[in-house]
Amino acid sequence: MAASIVFDPLLPWAVITGLAVLCLGLALYALWRGLAGWPWRTGAALALLAALMNPAIQREERKPLSDIVIAVVDRTSSQSVGDRALQAETALAALEAEVAALPGTELRVTTVLDAPGDGGSPVMAALAEAIAAEPRDRIAGAVIISDGRVHDIELAPAMPAPLHLLMTGRESDWDRRLIVKNAPAFAIIDEPVTLTLRIEDAGDVPASAAGMADLSIAIDGGEPQWYSVPVGEDLELPVTLPHGGQNILQFDVAAAEGELTTRNNSSVTAINGVRDRLRVLLVSGEPHAGERVWRNLLKSDPSVDLVHFTILRPPEKQDGVPVDELSLIAFPTRELFVEKIEEFDLIIFDRYRLRGILPQAYLENVRDYVTRGGTVLVAAGPEFGTADSLWRSPLADILPVTTTSRVLEGGFRPALTDLGQRHPVTQGLDARAPEGGWGRWFRQIEISARGAGQVVMEGLERRPLLVLAREGEGRVAVLASDHAWLWGRGYEGGGPQLELLRRLAHWMLKEPELEEETLSAEPKEQSIVVSRRTLSETPPDAVEVTLPDGTVTALALPQVSPGHYRAEMPAPQQGLYRLKQGELSTVVAVGPPSPREFEETLASAEVLEPVVEAAGGGVLRIEDGLPDLRTVGEGRTAAGRGWIGITPRGAHVTQDIRISALLPEWVWLAIASALILLAWLREGRLGGKAV
After folding, report:
1. How many other CB atoms are found less than 10 A from the CB of residue 128?
2. What is the DSSP letter of 484?
3. What is the pTM of this model?
4. How far is CA 622 from CA 96, 544, 607, 646, 658, in A?
5. pLDDT of residue 319
6. By the number of CB atoms within 10 A of the CB, which of 10, 44, 311, 420 ranks highest?
């Protein structure tokens, strides 16, 4: 029950104020003149003014409301290291017990998780939302249970009550982390690119761990190479990418005894390897309809440097023209096939026949170039089955086919074999066919695959049309027709000549995405897309996935197309995922290379302390003991050694209001009349003069 006096004036306040001024003036005048009854006349005027103001007593029935204490519990990734999670749970349980022991006090608990997009710990945003959800006049205090690593301090709300930090972590903690400072997204293959690495220690570093650290470097999940490097210094690391496409560079620092966490000891950097220029040597044996198509196809790509060696005047041609009158210059065959052959990424023999222009020693050099890692494509014509065929040269040692002298004539549509449906060079090409299918070809050389030759396309009589093979460290392809140019000309709708050649070239150049047996993974928001490509008709086994925290799980891959298996798995943790299936393995990083949660792992109140002090609260370490909870008056110190305070707010809700007049109207009139009568009697007895 609460009572108060309220006014409901019978006249406007301006009128009452004017009358009050008039009465005051008359009272002063009477006092100045020395009239004996001025006090009673003034009292009568005040009684009449009070009656005009109509005073009343207001009585309220009030229900007290409980005070609210807000607890913000940090459960972000940095809180998972050491025993911080246990400290936080213990502190929360103690706070719940303390609040429950206080009469009329409630606890609201808000949990903070990692912000999306590597936003770190959004503690201040969570605190602001919790305060906005409650009436401010009921908030008696707030407690943050965290390691102090807050990444949105600029969102700190204005506090209506004390704010405290119960800090997890220990003063004896120390940590080591790996930093990759500059990692380009792209780099040129076979040209060194420099990465800057740094290993840093922070905290109470033991003498046994200071000075040097062991660093391992692995590319594409291969065998790591270990090095001993200094701590606290920038390390310049030259890296040469081995292949095109994505190159995964994995850096790991060996765990040191007693360090807080190893989650920041690893870093995965993905660098896309690109070729500066694709150097192609096109050797045309004789003029034919498809020669110009090959040349135009290669010249249309600005990333291709083409050297075209064409034989327009074979040695057997005797037309009597003096050599010194020929306008063509001698082709630098020795320079190309001996001195600079290793500079070419791809050599194409287009309907070439043995005419003595390229000596056997040069062709032996081409054969050795392939076994050392080079690539050769043979586009065969009718000459391939003759006595001067390349198959009868030293190149026969690396060609994955045998041939006859038979030339098959007649219209046919190239088709993919069962293996071709699964091989990355030809997989899905049939889906690019125009309505009615690919355009027809009209000539094919009879060949048979041998050795490790893979037949991916077939033609007339289901004879091999395109055969691929690996020879030594290099690769070879044989196209048993000289009518591929019909696709380029769009005959009967044409076909995917450009795409087929592009894939052939990339397969020969060992691009990872066109390997026959691959296991790959790429991050996708909070998941990982795992792909497996194989030429086997047997479904592959499940992939073994090792999560950043060491948990191992198995992932089955359903088939999405012939030879291609794919699945998407959730990735709840940020960090490095390792995938392994048989002899294949790969790694993928989810989240940023250096998550904000692990950039600084040591507990610190440096960021939160100004906000806490401004709200009149305090910072206490949980390892020093759990504090008592006390109530303090508003504006008083709200924290001390071993205790924190909240301010009771005394909020309430009004359930009933009753208003009654302070005095009835006739009482006011009676008081005024009595005072006037006294004034008259006083003045009459004294003759109206002051005594």
Report:
1. 16
2. T
3. 0.65
4. 15, 40, 18, 18, 51
5. 57
6. 420
Contacts 24+ apart (CB under 8 A), 336-342: 336/281, 336/307, 336/309, 337/362, 337/365, 337/366, 338/362, 338/365, 341/365, 341/366, 341/369, 341/374, 342/369, 342/372, 342/374
pLDDT tens-digit profile of 426-479? 988 888 777 778 999 999 999 999 988 999 999 998 999 999 999 988 999 999
| Range picked from 83-97, 215-229, 311-325 for highest mean pLDDT | 83-97
For 161-215, give the DSSP string.
S-EEEEE-S-TT-EEEEEEEEE--SEEETTSEEEEEEEEEEEES--GGGSSEEEE
At which residue do the structure tokens 């706070």 appear?
95
Give the DSSP letter string of 361-397. HHHHHHHHHHHTT-EEEEE--GGGGSTT-GGGSGGGG
Q: Cβ distance 191 to 209 under 8 Å?
A: no
- State the average pLDDT over residues 522-537: 88
Q: Quick one: DSSP state of residue 338? A: I
> d(Cα 474, Cα 399) in Å, to the nearest integer?
12
H or E element, residue 283: strand 278-284
158-206 pLDDT per residue, tens: 999 999 999 999 999 999 999 888 888 888 887 888 899 999 999 988 8
Helix residue spans in 271-430 (DSSP H): 291-299, 333-334, 360-371, 418-422
Amino acid letter for position 193: V
